Amino acid sequence: MTEQPVSGMVAGTAGSTVGQAPESFHGRPVSWVAVTIITIGFVVGGFAMVPTPTWWLFWTAAAIAVVGLGIGTLAKVTEDWY
C-alpha cells in the first residue's frame, strides 16, 4: 500500500521537502476592503472621463480612492510585505 500525501504536500516522495507546496498568502480582509475601495474609485473616475469629462464625478472618484488609501494606511496593509 502506498503512502497518502500529507496535508501541505504534493504527491511525491513522502518525507521529502521537494514536493511541498508553498504556503499561500491571501492577505487580511481589511486589505481587500481597501483595495476594493481604491479600485471602485479608479473605475468611477474612468467612467467620469468618457465620453466627455464630468469633473464633479471625477473628483468624487478621486476622493473615494483617497479614502481607500487612508484605510490602507491606517490598517498598515504593506507591513507584511514579502
Short description:
49% of the residues lie in helices and 0% in strands. It has helices at residues 29-48, 55-74.
Mean model confidence by pLDDT: 81
Low-confidence stretches: none
Secondary-structure-derived class: mainly alpha
**String of helices and strands:** HH
Query: In angstroms, what separates the terminal alpha carbons?
Result: 40 Å
Whole-number radius of gyration?
A: 22 Å
The description of the largest β-sheet is: none
Strand content: under 5%
Give the beta-strand count: 0
Q: Label the overall shape.
A: elongated
The helix fraction, in percent, is 40-55%
Structure description:
The protein is mainly alpha-helical and 82 residues long. Helix 1 (29-48) runs antiparallel to helix 2 (55-74). It has a domain at 29-74. The chain has two helices and no strands. The longest helix is centred in the middle third of the chain and has 20 residues, at 29-48.
Question: What's the topology here?
Answer:
Layout: H1 29-48, H2 55-74
Helix pairs in contact: 1-2
